[in-house]
Amino acid sequence: MSQPRILIIEDERGLIQSLEWYFKREGYETIVATDGQEGLTKAQTLLPDLVLLDLMLPTMSGLEVCSQLRSFDKTKLIPIIMLTARAEESDEIEGLSVGADDYVTKPFSNKILLQRVRALLRRSEVQPENGDSIQHIGICIDRVRHQVTIHDELLELTPTEFRLLECLLRQPGRAFTRHQLMQASIGEGSIVLERTIDVHIKTLRKKIAVYLGEKEYIETVRGVGYRFRESSED
Ligand code: CA
Fold first, then answer.
1. Ligand 1 midpoint to CA 11 (Å)
2. 90 Cα: distance to centroid of ligand 1 (angstroms)
3. Rounded to the nearest 5°, which phi and psi values hold at 26?
4. Do residues 176 and 227 make contact, with C-beta atoms less than 8 angstroms apart?
């Protein structure tokens, strides 16, 4: 990626200036939108490599922008980092469940944000290997088409959930630490909070439960992290 293009959707002037200055200095191309509708339009037309998305925006909320971006083919794989003003878990969970990959809570340091941006961009550069698919108890991950089906029904996953499930299903029964899951799903060198993984696991469990029932397929391993069930039997 020569000069990655970042779309900043934010309505606080001071923060926009600081982000633009910082990311330009670090070699990024920056585009700014100051309300939700403008942000959505610019994302769809300019196709940035990553979106920084404020939650509270005029004309259209960050959550709405996020779910719109996820529902269009051209924009559904663009990494999104939510900038949340309040340290309220409900906002973060909502943001991640509508498809954001990560979030930072204001006020944040530009340096930390940059590390998260780099981690997500590295992740999206990785190309899937050819012809690779993973199958386990009715779930099929097609890595070429970037699709997951359960008993032939298409499962709609965010890019992060996809990678998370892929990691777990490569070795059913093996427990992964939150750190390992973060590296696999969000990116090498990511320094996100471990709680972020818990939130992604929670939304992933809900989506799987729609097809496979309430049984816990992604098991919590106390003191370690998570593992996927080896079989559908008890
Ligand atoms: Ca705002």
1. 5
2. 17
3. -85, 5
4. yes
Instruction: Please classify residue 139 by burial: count the beta carbons closer than 10 Å to its beta carbon, then call 0-12 exposed, 13-18 middle and 19+ buried.
Output: buried
The helix/strand/coil state of 208 is: helix
Residues paired with 147 in a beta bridge: 142
- Sign, CA dihedral 174-180-183-188, equals negative
Return the DSSP state at 231: -
R_g over Cα of the chain:
18
Q: What is the pTM of this model?
A: 0.64
pLDDT in tens, 39-76: 999 998 888 999 999 999 999 999 999 999 999 888 88
Q: What is the pLDDT of residues 86-122, one digit of tens each?
A: 666 676 677 787 889 998 888 999 999 999 999 899 8
How far is CA 122 from its chain centroid?
13
Backbone angles phi, psi at 82, to 5 degrees: -85, 140
> Distance from the CA of 225 to the center of ligand 1, in angstroms?
34
Rounded to the nearest angstrom, the distance between the alpha carbon of 144 and the centre of ligand 1 is 38
In the chain the domains, ranked by start, together with CATH numbers, are 5-125 (3.40.50.2300), 133-228 (1.10.10.10)
Q: Which tokens is 233 given?
A: 């039997």
What does the alpha-carbon distance between residue 141 and residue 200 come to, in Å, rounded to a whole number? 18
